[in-house]
Amino acid sequence: MICFKRINDSYGQRIGDEVLQSVASILERSSREGDTIARIGGDEFILLLPAISSAEEAVDIADRIIQETAFPLHHNGNDIHITLSIGLAIFPDNGESKEQLIRNADIAVCNSKSTSRNNICLYDSSLQNNNSNKIFTENLIRNAINNEQIEINYQPQINLDSGKLHAVEALVRIKSADRGLILPGEFIETAEESNLINELGDCILENILQDAKNWHAQGVNVQIGINISAVQLAMDGFADYLISKIRDHNLRLNIFEIEITENVLIQNMEMTLANIIKLTNHGIKIAIDDFGTGYSSLSYLDQLPLNTLKLDKSFIKKIRGAGDDNTIIPAVRNVSSGLRLNFIAEGVERKTQHDYLKSLGPCIIAQGFYYGRPINSQTMLVFIKNYDSRKFN
Ligand code: C2E
Ligand code: CA
Ligand code: CA
């Protein structure tokens, strides 16, 4: 299933479960006696069709399944659209063992989106070379972890009242010999969908803590924002893990602010909340990232022990020229002030946007290319040491 995670994130796990059941029924309706249907992963199903006489027949069945999912599922007044991608591997041409067949069907699934055939892809050996698939990305991540190719870049956040540096945000990259720095947009989602996010998250944290230690040794004690995936935050014991890891590095807990998106609050709510509360009780700060793009419920804002709201960069993007106005930006700034939360405007690229934020009055922190692009820890150390708060005041 494509985007099942998004359905789960937006509608909650109960509805996610119902969607899975609907898909299972569709598969059941489309299959014949003697076929086997199994769910092998969160959003992955496998069909074993022993009675087909040609690859075309398998494609016909896949077509029928795709057609059945063309209609949205109705739930509580919502139309939920599901999209399947189907990969086919035929015995014995595409594999003689069950492992090989499953692996090749999986490779075909990863390529199904780029075929003209309605998200259906029949395996052939040339697909192995296609770099754009999930398996490739998983390998990229694994290799990066094993070969110390994870690099953290840091981007400044500026307090517009004083012009001083408020904090830096840690942003992960993969250092590739032939492609330079690979941005997280290319691999975080795959890491979250596989179990790699824990290993990757651990490696990211280790790097950040090492950098923080080095900075500390040079007399720099800046606040650091760390992006934490919803998957990690929903895990039993995550808060204990984070706390003990920071302590192991002899660093203070209260120089860290973790950034989470609003959507973390709808999956495994209970565990997520328990982790958030434990973290804040120990002095780790919590920021809501990309505010305004998710379900943006105001009700949780005063119930959760939050420290910061980060308004998504799409809002600042709308400020183009001098004199441009916007109602959302000052409104969210006022909500933040009312709830005693820090307000960070993300994505400031130009002077006009900076000037606009200054014109709104006090209590604004800003982040964006205008103040500085993400840079490696050594360069950031120099940036901090030479930073002159008059520059942006
Ligand atoms: P984010 O947390 O919203 O991070 C801000 C993103 O906006 C970064 O992209 C940053 O480079 C970019 N950005 C900063 N200033 C500007 C600007 O003025 N204009 C524009 N157009 N963009 C700007 P990046 O580094 O590619 O990261 C993308 C996303 O990947 C992050 O969005 C975050 O959700 C995720 N991510 C990054 N690092 C980590 C990490 O260590 N762990 C996890 N779980 N996710 C991460
Ligand atoms: Ca962030
Ligand atoms: Ca953001």
Walk me through what this model shows.
The chain has 393 residues and is of the alpha/beta class. The longest helix is centred in the middle third of the chain and has 22 residues. The model has no long low-confidence stretch (mean pLDDT 91). The structure holds ligand C2E and calcium ion (CA) (2 copies). Ligand C2E binds next to strand 8 and strand 12. One calcium ion binds next to strand 12.
Topology (SSEs and partners):
Blueprint (H helix, E strand, L loop, with lengths): L3 H8 L1 H18 L5 E6 L2 E5 L6 H14 L4 E3 L2 E3 L5 E3 L9 H15 L7 E3 L11 H13 L3 E10 L5 E12 L3 E3 L5 H6 L2 H22 L6 E4 L2 H4 L4 H11 L7 E6 L7 H13 L3 E7 L16 E4 L1 H5 L10 H11 L3 E4 L5 H9 L5 E3 L7 E2 H10 L7
Parallel strand pairs: 5-6, 8-10, 10-11, 11-12, 12-13, 13-14, 14-15
Antiparallel strand pairs: 1-2, 3-4, 7-8, 7-15, 7-16, 8-9
Helix pairs in contact: 1-2, 5-7, 9-10
| CATH structural fold name of the largest domain | TIM Barrel
CATH class of the largest domain: Alpha Beta
Q: Hey, roughly how much beta strand do the residues contain? A: 15-25%
Residues in helix, %: 40-55%
Order of helices and strands: HHEEHEEEHEHEEEHHEHHEHEEHHEHEEH
What's the shape?
Answer: globular
Q: What strand order characterises the main sheet?
A: 7-8-10-11-12-13-14-15
Please give the radius of gyration in angstroms.
Answer: 24 Å
The number of helical elements comes to: 14
The chain-level structural class is: alpha/beta
Q: Got a strand count?
A: 16
Task: Give the terminus-to-terminus CA distance.
Answer: 50 Å
Rounded average pLDDT: 91
Going by CATH, the architecture of the largest domain would be Alpha-Beta Barrel
What are the bound molecules? ligand C2E, calcium ion
Mind summarizing the main beta sheet?
A: 8 strands, mixed, barrel
Low-confidence stretches: none
